[in-house]
User: Which sequence fits this backbone?
């Protein structure tokens, strides 16, 4: 098996994020994820710096690496200038490259993110757009959001928006040539290949579990990964980090 | 003459903010949820402060939400940002004004990466040229749009129609300010006041007559957590972190919350609705919820702009109790009109409705 630590060092965020950890635990103290999940960034960083291949493989297949919210509060506070959040980003990238993310409930959610945020980028030129925030997927948005969705054009026009039209302004339609440049940037830099990998590994896992992946958000597997929650993520299991 | 010691200490918390001629880049979340805020910012810059600020309609998402949900590689987002810099160079601008805290954090991360790992800058130049034929320069000055409002806070105060004062008691309004983690926790030198003494919003509030509340969880994350909100199964993380903040601020009886980041604004507004629905809990005085405003909305209010032209009616938590406290005049019947004055039926079940 390839040396996973060496693969991590190919990610510049890992090089920047982990110099030498002294195990003080300040990152865990400040961490919003550690407060509500069974999550301890100190232990993860320490595990990685031991360079044990099996332990790193277990991390890449674990639930643990998906608990961080990437708020980066840890960066401000680490007395050694490490950034556990960047270490997590490198672990997540490698987990997806190797297909290990499909081994955990939280990791499998990458499929849902690719099918929503990822496809929005190519379709609209935005990560998030009014018409892509579906009230049925977002009940917490409340009645104001249903109202906005039902009357988008009138509401946005009053506020000076170019709602889904070419030209300057909020929620303007992104011109086709700009979206084409965006697509080419993804092709040239490996972004397209990375999203295709998420899709391929997810389709393999879905088939293994007996689910259809379909198109967009209209699939059994999307609903499964988007909503599934074992309810055990704030409980410590024996033998886990 | 020897420089006073306190001046030297505070110098590292200062930020150089350009005075004029900005290239403006929008925020996916701010323009989707608070389009009135972005448009008022541009109007204020051009018509009230007399500044030159340019928007190229061809700029796209920075892909930041994709980056922080781990589906967009670093090399890709660096090149998308480089394209924005190329559009800026082509238009003859050198100062960038960024409307989103997530984007702003990414710009700071990328510029610092290019400084510390110069080979990544060269690689990005190659990628951008190969993909688009464009070339770019790194901006001379980079500001979040709130930095610019902060810079001109006294000019805004001088033109203000209202002050952030309770007209019934004569006391300053008590304001919670929320900076947003990615504004300065990652690269403190890019934020006004750094990570330890962020002044960007508190400076506005004080200049406009209000009083800032210092409460225990003032610097805690709003709970967005990117994948922790975007995926429905994870939203307990997002809600729990917001509730931690609300519980902490409640005893200080805030009149309103002002936010730097559009995402934080949306979460702190919507999670108050969710908590009211789920557990019947509210965090304002007298059973009300706390209005959550963007800094553009607050600037607009003190300058006397019609609250319905700013888009205050499109939050879950409605602002009339706050407007009454300040003494802001508004016409309730103008609230839900189209730009041509046609009435849209009012939404039901919003919060803080009289």
Assistant:
């Amino acid at each position: 098996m390839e040396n996973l630590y060496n693969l991590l060092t190919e990610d510049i965020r890992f090089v920047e994020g982990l110099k030498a950890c002294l195990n003080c635990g300040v990152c865990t103290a400040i961490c919003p994820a550690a407060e509500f999940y069974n999550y301890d960034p100190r232990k993860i960083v320490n595990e990685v710096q031991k360079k044990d291949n099996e332990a790193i493989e277990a991390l890449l297949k674990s639930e643990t690496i998906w608990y961080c919210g990437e708020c980066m509060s840890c960066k401000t506070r680490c007395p050694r200038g490490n950034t556990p959040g960047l270490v997590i980003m490198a672990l997540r990238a490698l987990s997806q490259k190797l297909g290990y993310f499909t081994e955990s409930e939280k990791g499998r959610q990458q499929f849902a993110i690719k099918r929503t945020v990822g496809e929005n980028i190519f379709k609209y030129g935005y990560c998030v757009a009014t018409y892509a925030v579906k009230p049925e997927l977002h009940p917490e948005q409340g009645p104001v959001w249903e109202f906005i969705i039902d009357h988008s054009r009138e509401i946005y026009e009053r506020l000076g928006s170019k709602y889904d039209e070419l030209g300057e302004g909020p929620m303007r339609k992104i011109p086709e040539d700009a979206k084409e440049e965006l697509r080419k940037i993804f092709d040239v830099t490996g972004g397209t290949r990375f999203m295709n990998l998420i899709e391929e590994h997810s389709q393999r896992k879905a088939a293994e579990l007996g689910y259809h992946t379909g198109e967009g958000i209209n699939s059994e597997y999307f609903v499964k990964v988007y909503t599934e929650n074992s309810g055990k993520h704030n409980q410590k299991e024996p033998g886990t980090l | 003459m020897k420089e006073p010691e306190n001046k030297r200490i505070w110098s590292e918390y200062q930020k150089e903010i350009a005075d004029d001629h900005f290239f403006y880049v929008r925020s996916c979340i701010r323009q989707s949820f608070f389009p009135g805020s972005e448009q008022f910012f541009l109007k204020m810059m051009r018509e009230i402060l007399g500044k030159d600020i340019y928007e190229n309609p061809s700029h796209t998402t920075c892909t930041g939400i994709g980056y922080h949900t781990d589906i967009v590689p670093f090399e890709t987002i660096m090149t998308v940002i480089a394209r924005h810099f190329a559009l800026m160079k082509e238009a003859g601008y050198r100062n960038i004004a960024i409307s989103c805290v997530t984007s702003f954090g990414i710009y700071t991360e990328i510029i610092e990466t290019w400084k510390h790992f110069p080979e990544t800058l060269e690689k990005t130049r190659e990628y951008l040229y190969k993909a688009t034929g464009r070339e770019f320069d790194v901006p001379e000055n980079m500001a979040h749009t709130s930095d610019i409002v902060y810079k001109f806070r006294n000019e805004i105060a001088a033109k203000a129609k209202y002050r952030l004062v309770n007209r019934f008691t004569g006391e300053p309004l008590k304001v919670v300010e929320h900076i947003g983690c990615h504004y300065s926790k990652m690269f403190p030198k890019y934020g006004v006041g750094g990570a330890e003494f962020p002044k960007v919003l508190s400076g506005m509030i004080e200049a406009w007559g209000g009083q800032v509340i210092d409460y225990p969880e003032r610097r805690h994350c709003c709970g967005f957590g990117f994948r922790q909100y975007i995926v429905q199964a994870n939203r307990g993380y997002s809600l729990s972190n917001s509730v931690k903040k609300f519980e902490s601020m409640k005893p200080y009886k805030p009149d309103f919350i002002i936010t730097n980041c559009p995402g934080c604004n949306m979460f702190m507004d919507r999670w108050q609705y969710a908590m009211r629905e789920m557990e019947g809990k509210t965090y304002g005085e007298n059973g009300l919820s706390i209005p959550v405003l963007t800094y553009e909305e607050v600037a607009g209010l003190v300058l006397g702009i019609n609250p319905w032209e700013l888009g205050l009616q499109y939050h879950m938590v409605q602002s009339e109790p706050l407007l009454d406290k300040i003494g802001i005049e508004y016409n309730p019947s103008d609230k839900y009109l189209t730009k041509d004055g046609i009435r849209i039926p009012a939404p039901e079940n919003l919060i803080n409705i009289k």
